[in-house]
Amino acid sequence: MSTSTLEVQLDQGVCTLTLNRPEVRNAMSLAMVHELLQALQDAEANPAVRVLVLRGAGGHFCAGGDIGDMARARMQLAQQQAEAAAGQTPQARNPIEEVNAAFGRLCLAYARSPLPIVTVLEGTVMGGGFGLACVSDVSLALDTVSFRLPETSLGIIPAQIAPFLVERLGYAEAKRLSVTGAKVAAAEALSIRLVHEVHGDAASLQDALQQTVERILACGPQAIATTKGLLQRARQTPAEDLIDDAAALFARAVLSEEGQEGTSAFMQKRKPVWNT
After folding, report:
1. Rounded CA separation 120/22 (Å)
2. What is the pLDDT of residues 176-195, one digit of tens each?
3. Consecutive H or E run containing 18
4. Cβ contacts of 261 within 8 Å, gap of 6 or more
5. Which residues of the chain have pLDDT under 70?
6. φ and ψ at 32, to 5 degrees?
């Protein structure tokens, strides 16, 4: 995959996507949104990929949306409105909406991915970067990380990340952070479970990433994918309505090649060998 805003590396089942616009603290341009979507699709289609890691170049994760894209969208809207008023063309869809919706589709795709997703968070994590942290399965942070949710302080709204804020933090915390335009340091991020681990230096953070990846690779890939899908449904489905479906999924897992290998390995006191 040829990219202009990402570095993509595949090594022993781990696909690492590095946001690579360090000159703007990895602000998320529309080009980056499209490349992140394509990279996810490629990873999901590649049986060699077992884990997806998201991180940023230059000491920052992501400083939110690219203001250049927003400025261009405003100019396009003004041109559309002028042309529509002159009767030259019918009013097209608002380009500001299109830019925002593209990011929403990105968040949703990562949130629903069957692949385990790990974010490595350093420096600035704002807006869209905040959203990517919320949709990941495991978030590891450096103790100097700074989270910002500045939208309301700018007179705008955290439109596309709102559902993922609620999912990750709960309704009360999502409201508190949103209405205060909050700045959250690493210790608070850990206490509200925005991140799962905080580490004091880059070496410790890298060690934690390696340990997390090893734990994921020790699990059955199809079992992980099925579990993620079941947990997604469990968020909005009463437990009694999942009993039969969950039982069917469990039976298929037990009888699958992966399930038989996993249980045999346990009985034989050896590590399972997963077919990917």
Report:
1. 15
2. 999 999 899 999 999 999 99
3. strand 14-19
4. 220, 272, 273, 274, 275
5. 1-2, 71, 73-74, 77-78, 80-92
6. -65, -40
Residue 139 and residue 231 in one domain: no
Distance CA 120, CA 199 (A): 11
| Burial environment of residue 120 by CB neighbours within 10 A (0 to 12, 13 to 18, 19 or more) | buried
* 37 and 134 co-located in one domain: yes
Q: Which two tokens stand for residue 10?
A: 């595949």
Q: Are 195 and 189 in contact (CB under 8 A)?
A: yes
**How many domains in the chain?**
2
pTM of the model: 0.91
Q: Check whether residue 200 and residue 226 sit in a common domain.
A: no
Q: Which domain holds residue 261?
A: 220-267
d(CA 95, CA 74): 7
H helix count then E strand count, the chain: 11, 9
